[in-house]
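Dear colleague,

As promised, here are the two records you asked about, laid out in our usual form so they can be pasted straight into your sheet.

NAME FIELD: protein one
SEQUENCE, THEN STRUCTURE:
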Amino acid sequence: MQSLYLLIPLSIVLAGAAIWAFFWAVNQGQFEELDEPARAILDDDLPPESAHDASGPEPRP
């Protein structure tokens, strides 16, 4: 019974800390754009530069 005098206030404090942490994360924008980083890996790579640039160095005159 005496352990409840410690555990109940401790659980209330921990629940309050969890609620505060959740609202802090929401206000900081931690839950914004959850899908975009996952889709970014599916985007195509940048197209290669022109074929002339990829052929190597230009010959010297």
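NAME FIELD: protein two
SEQUENCE, THEN STRUCTURE:
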Amino acid sequence: MRTQPVDDTGAVLVLGAGVAGLTAALRLADAGLRPVVLEAAKTAGGRARSHPDPGGHEELDNGPHLLMGAYTHTLQLLDRLGSRSQLLEVETPRFTFWDRVQGWQQLRCPDWPAPWHLLAALARFAPLTAGDKWTAVRLLPALLFDHATELEQQSVTQWLAAHRQSAALCQRLWYPLCLATLNEPAGSANAGLFATVLRRLFLTDRQAASPLWPVVPLSHLIAIPAQEAIRRAGGAIRYQCRVQQLTFAGQTLQAVHTSRGSWHAPRAVVSALPGAALARLLPDWAASCQLTALQTAPIVSVHLTYPVPATLPAPMVGLPGESSQWLLDRNRIAYRDPVEGLEPGRAVPYVDGRFSAVLSGAYRECHWPAAELVRVVHQDLVRLLPSLAPLVPTMARVSKMHHATFAPWPGSSRYRPGSRTPWQNFCLAGDWTATGLPATLEGAAQSGIDAAEKILDLLACER
């Protein structure tokens, strides 16, 4: 390891160029600082990045991401980057489902104030009986008065059962929503986190539950414009620069040693590293706050392309009970293709069928062979689009993220540290920190802002 500094002393450093790190760096840059972001990979974005498909003509996301109207910090970030126009927004919150018994269904919220828009949507949701719909009303007092900390030790299944939610309502709405937002099946998911999600989606305003789909690959939505904005503000991003050691003196972080040199006497540092990476760097601190007890949960994504035009009736379709929990029609949202160089706003013609499946909480599926994953997703697509039955995908890509998110099990919040650390000039960011949210883009963006604000408060006190 080089021991000579590679930059002037007094640098403001951000460790990691995922969404949390980029958000923190942008906030610091907007405050007049010149942050230096140190990233181990060749590109920015972390889990929210895309890469060219080596055998095709499109850029595939590391895993499909759905944004929601409740993602206030994420949407503010996109406004700052000028990329919010690259979201496909719908005026009325609606979700399309399919199952083998009821076929196609749609949960559509009318233009009513929250939470009445949800109750009206459930009242019109055909798969539910009148009794099923009435049980949803019982959950409103719980959302208003049950405190998240009181629910911390319960699973989502236990909490819903305590409030007598019907089996049909759970299977068709609450369980799929839990799996999608927490990346964990309801039987082992933290009820406190799920209650927070429901409050944000359905008890704030009508648009909070509106789905938003990126119409460009994720790197073009966040990472690329963020790195350009950081550089324009005088900051920098150093790629392939893996943090190897942190050294401290008393209550101060004294040096950051990386594979490309060492930064000595930094003015302030935000760590947006994954929790496991930080635990390896600071094993004693990690043991003291029980960070190593925070486990991880996997996500599997399967991308398929067919040689004929094919499309779903909605950009995203939920399949309760099927292997492909959610199917994304990439054609319906692909208004610009950076690889092909199409102009923004020009629709990509349906010359083929392009779909992606998201398998959250994929503890079993992440161990399946890629061929088996392709087979089961193909079968799910054939149930919706029988014309695909005799076809073989012309492109099939499987992405397995074994450690995609922290595992939001009951009691897991106690292992999520806050943004402050024992060292005055060292703060934490990341969707795994104590944001009060599950591991989402919103949690990452919120954590980056929180960490940057604490650094700015520290530097203001120094003046």
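A couple of things worth noting about protein two: Residues 336-347 have pLDDT under 50 and may be disordered. The chain has three domains: 12-48+218-294+409-462, 109-206, 296-406.

Best,
R.
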